[in-house]
Amino acid sequence: MAERDLEATERQRSGHSANVDCASDAETRASAMTGDEADLGAIDDIIGFHIRLAHGATYRHFTETFSELGLTQKMVSVLWLIDDHPHIAQADIGRRLQMDRATTMAIINRLEARSLLVRGASTLDRRRQTLTLTATGHEALIEARRCIDEHEQWVRSRFTKREATLLIELLRRIHE
Amino acid sequence: MAERDLEATERQRSGHSANVDCASDAETRASAMTGDEADLGAIDDIIGFHIRLAHGATYRHFTETFSELGLTQKMVSVLWLIDDHPHIAQADIGRRLQMDRATTMAIINRLEARSLLVRGASTLDRRRQTLTLTATGHEALIEARRCIDEHEQWVRSRFTKREATLLIELLRRIHE
DNA sequence: CAGATTTGTATGCTATGCTTACGAAATCGG
DNA sequence: CCGATTTCGTAAGCATAGCATACAAATCTG
Q1: Would residue A115 be called left, alpha or beta, if left means φ above 0 and alpha means ψ between -120 and 50 degrees?
Q2: Which of B61, B57, B67 is CA-nearest to residue B143?
Q3: Strand D closer than 7 Å to the CB of A167?
Q4: pLDDT digit string (tens) for A52-74?
Q5: What is the DSSP string of B95-157?
Q6: Nearest Cβ partner of A77 from B43, B54, B166?
Q7: Which of A32, A115, A150, B68 lies at 20 to 30 Å from B42 by C-alpha?
């Protein structure tokens, strides 16, 4: 399904004859020094860098798992949140998921366009609009939860229960 | 600089009089049950969810730190990598940073447009193009490293040295 | 040599996220 | 109670990022 260059495991370039045309040693090194794992140099010690890679890997697997459902991480999070808190307002969702108001709206729009939720007027605050899942939305969420379980299993397979808890704990310190 | 709704701390809605117009209890609950921290319900146990939030928080702080330099995480990573491995090829960069070839090119293009690097023909493999930092690019990287230190400090401030090492270790298991 | 693979490239689509701006509604301070 | 401030939803525009697909040239493999 995905060409994804990334899958390609690093094949080691076989030793090159030393007297080609005498390309700069640097160039030789640059392409030859790929052992089992890519040498990342000093960025390897930057936490943010690893977060980004881990996020990318997680995102990729998520997308794959959800390709049939056609839902993204954000969409599922929003559906989930609305299900947990019926009649929640956009602003609340944004706050909880740490998204901009505009970004939140974009997602809600897409969700609404697919009839997974409905906007309704709030009786408490007429600035607000209460968001509620439709039957379809509820079904989609149930389906999504199944996929999430599978996805979460993929992530957790590399950790003990203790490690998983610890990881969440550490990550929470960053975003909370 | 940033309006960012996210900054807004959750102010608790003062208790509502019980006999307004009798809005559904659900709606009341949805907006009222925001204590000190947003209640996220069950998604709170999903590792991927926390990775995403942590990534978002990190990304935001990074962007802020680099707003003057006008560089993104990806750009810096690429510059850094080229500096560590002069004459590296695009494909290698993509593999190491786990990016698509097309995505990699987009970034290289932007970097080249800003004269931070130059593409040159490879003497070893004429399909490849060796990438090298310009003087400007090198300066930018030096400047960037200063910002990264600051950024990394922001992240690390919430961890002990041991925890930081552990966190990287755990994250590595996900993306490696 | 012929076929498969790799590399760089171009094009186009989608999702995300931010900014700025606006109007309507609510809240706050006097 | 009224004016100032804030919140909420919305809209339009811009940049980044990521993916798929397709091509041509170069290289590798059998």
Answers
A1: left
A2: B67
A3: no
A4: 999 999 999 999 999 989 999 99
A5: HHHT--HHHHHHHHHHHHHTTSEEEEE-SS-TT-EEEEE-HHHHHHHHHHHHHHHHHHHHHHT
A6: B43
A7: A115
Q: Is residue B24 part of a domain?
A: no
d(CA B95, CA A7): 9
Q: Output the domain CATH number for residue B60.
A: 1.10.10.10
Query: Which residue type sits at A168?
Result: I
Q: What is the pLDDT of residues B84-95, one digit of tens each?
A: 999 999 999 999
Q: Is residue A96 part of a domain?
A: yes
B94 domain residue, yes or no = yes
If one counts the domains in chain B, the total is: 1
The answer to whether residue B30 sits within a structural domain is no
Domain interval for residue A158 = 46-175
Mean pLDDT of A148-168: 96
A21, A98, A152 member nearest B53 (Cβ): A98
Q: For position A27, what pLDDT does the model report?
A: 46
- Residue, of B152 and B40, whose pLDDT is higher: B152
The pLDDT of residue B126: 85
Model pLDDT, residue B23: 41
Q: From the Cβ of B127, is strand D under 7 Å away?
A: yes
Q: What is the dihedral of CA A157, A159, A160, A161, to 10 degrees?
A: -90
